[in-house]
Amino acid sequence: MAEDKRGLLAHGDGVAPHRHTDGQLLYPSAGVLVTTTERGTWVAPPNRVAWTPPGFEHHHRAYGKTDVRVVEISRTLCASLPDRPVVFAVSPLLREALLVLTNGRELRPDARDRLREVAVDELVDASEEALYLPEPADDRLRAVTDLLHADPATLSTLAELGRTAGAGERTLSRLFQAELGMSFPRWRSLLRVQHALVRLAEGDAVIDTATRLGWANPTSFIEAFTAIVGRTPGRYQAELRRGDR
């Protein structure tokens, strides 16, 4: 198994596509880490940890000065965790386990193994965070999501997007639920919140972020952001500036 480690990434730094034979937990103790696979994209701010199962090709990009803690999880322990990429909230105990595993301290192999088991135990009962944006396999639906990725702020309806993509509104609505497990408005809102997490990490003002990402007003943006992230945009941005973890 590869060693647990700590990586320091500058704003905009990326890690090329790669895959692991073991599972991997990625915890940004500062900054924001965006991870992408063919199945979708997830954003991990400092109070979240991203789980990548074995075998998933993925790549990363950092926003803000990002301190990433990487913990490798053996295939045996992976059986207790989801078989798909997930974002989890970080409990105080999990945070301390991840920091100890990656701070360069010499640990006995059995002690390191027990800490990894503690980390996995903390995640088994943790709720999944709504920070993972799934991507479709259906060509018709992917044509629509590609349009939204290119312009998250677009006010186009699903019917209008469907005409551009060459698919009917009812068909697309059904595909959003069947393939992605959510409605079109929910998927678009999640896409915009992911972009907002990055913009706020880059220092954009809350009002500017709301306007540039297509919300009708700052209040609707704050409500959507808080419902998904669990804190207001202002509090999230203040925590990033203070380096809270």
Summarize the structure.
The protein is of the alpha+beta class. The protein is 45% helix and 24% strand. Strand 3 and strand 4 form a beta hairpin.
Characteristics:
245 residues; alpha+beta; Jelly Rolls; Arc Repressor Mutant, subunit A; 2 domains; eight-stranded antiparallel sheet; 45% helix; globular
Question: Order of helices and strands, N to C?
Answer: EEEEEEHEHHEHHHHHHH
Characterize the overall form.
globular
Q: List the uncertain runs.
A: none
Largest sheet: 8 strands, antiparallel
Instruction: Give the proportion of residues in helices.
Output: 40-55%
Structural class: alpha+beta
- Overall mean pLDDT: 90
Relative strand content = 15-25%
Which helices and strands appear, and what pairs or packs with what?
Elements: E1 5-9, E2 14-18, E3 23-37, E4 40-44, E5 48-52, E6 58-73, H1 75-78, E7 86-89, H2 92-102, H3 109-124, E8 132-134, H4 139-150, H5 158-165, H6 169-180, H7 184-201, H8 206-212, H9 218-229, H10 233-242
Antiparallel strand pairs: 1-6, 2-6, 3-4, 3-5, 3-6, 4-8, 5-7
Helix pairs in contact: 2-3, 4-5, 5-6, 7-9, 7-10, 8-9
